[in-house]
Amino acid sequence: MILRLAGPLLLIGAGKMGGALLEGWLKQGLDPASVFIQDPALSDAMGAFAETHGIVANDAPELPAPPAVILIAVKPDVAEKLLPEVEPMVGEKTVVLSIAAGRKLESLSRYLPENVAVVRAMPNTPASVGQGITVCIANANVTEEQKRECDALLSAVGEVVWVDDEALLDPVTAVSGSGPAYVFLLAECLEQAGIDAGLPEALAKRLARATVAGAGALLEQSDLDVATLRKNVTSPKGTTAAALEVLMDDDILKRLLARAVANAAKRSRELSS
Ligand SMILES: NC(=O)c1ccc[n+]([C@@H]2O[C@H](COP(=O)([O-])OP(=O)(O)OC[C@H]3O[C@@H](n4cnc5c(N)ncnc54)[C@H](OP(=O)(O)O)[C@@H]3O)[C@@H](O)[C@H]2O)c1
Fold first, then answer.
1. By CB atoms within 10 Å of each CB, which of 131, 137, 181, 194 scores lowest?
2. What value does the mean pLDDT of the chain take?
């Protein structure tokens, strides 16, 4: 289905995440003429990308009509300072969609017109390869149509889940927002363990990377739950069982990850406003 919006889309901040979203939208057929980028320090690569697609990109793009969607994709501290600037751009039917980590619906609405429709979303970096997952929450002013528009925009880079309890955004940040780093750490540890077990460094790196990527792809394509996938590669008394005996001893890994996620959720709560 071709991605269409009821009006122009203003993307404020075309960095890593804003850029990934933009690429996803264009792949889904969104008309580049309906996209406007506001970013005072656009990277050369993003500037060239915008130019190739004929997208207007500068520090104050002129829109032909009030935007259907204003997507705030700047760092959280910048987002806070930017909101008074966004206020005059909000039209009657505009929805403000923010991906700024830790910026709550209430604080996003504070500098915007009364009754403004606001959606807060937490994406993750696999969005840059179209395999992200984004968790969203809408304030009471968001219409079904606006929700559909935000859903379609975020679905261009992966899965989208809506929740109605904003407190969930902290554990969401700790699991899916920060989660890709935990998996990269696992790949680093596997690489080092391979070297320690006698593999040449280049081979250990290659094996660790391909194994984590391949397991991720298998997980993505399979309908089986993760525990079944694990059991399916674990023959009784085999090599995998020997390794899992260590990893699962006294729930060591389970408990370590639970501590890590709890710590990240705590930090997310501390940083939120
Ligand atoms: N990347 C992730 O994995 C991830 C995951 C979840 C949520 N998020 C959220 O997504 C947001 C963007 O993150 P990111 O990683 O994409 O950051 P980023 O790469 O630094 O992108 C932010 C962009 O906004 C630009 N910018 C700075 N001040 C601006 C202003 N006043 N007006 C318009 N644009 C401005 C930046 O330019 P300069 O570089 O010149 O400052 C940069 O191009 C953050 O709030 C973050 O919390 C990111």
1. 181
2. 95
> Could you tell me if residue 57 is left (phi over 0), alpha (psi between -120 and 50 degrees) or otherwise beta?
beta
Instruction: List residues bridging with 69 in a β-sheet.
Output: 9, 95
Q: Can you say how many angstroms the Cα of residue 46 is from the centroid of all Cα atoms in its chain?
A: 19
Give me the residues of the chain with pLDDT under 70, please. none
Position 236, amino acid: P
The number of helices, as runs of H, and strands, as runs of E, in the chain is 11, 8
pLDDT at 80 (0 to 100): 87
Calpha distance 16→159 (Å, rounded):
18
Q: What is the pLDDT of residue 1?
A: 75
C-beta of 213 in contact with ligand 1 (< 6 A)? no
Q: Strand ranges (DSSP E) for the chain?
A: 9-12, 35-38, 56-58, 69-72, 95-98, 117-122, 132-138, 158-162
106-156 pLDDT, tens per residue?
A: 999 998 999 999 999 999 999 989 999 999 999 999 999 999 999 999 999
**Alpha carbon of 262 to ligand 1 centroid (Å):** 25
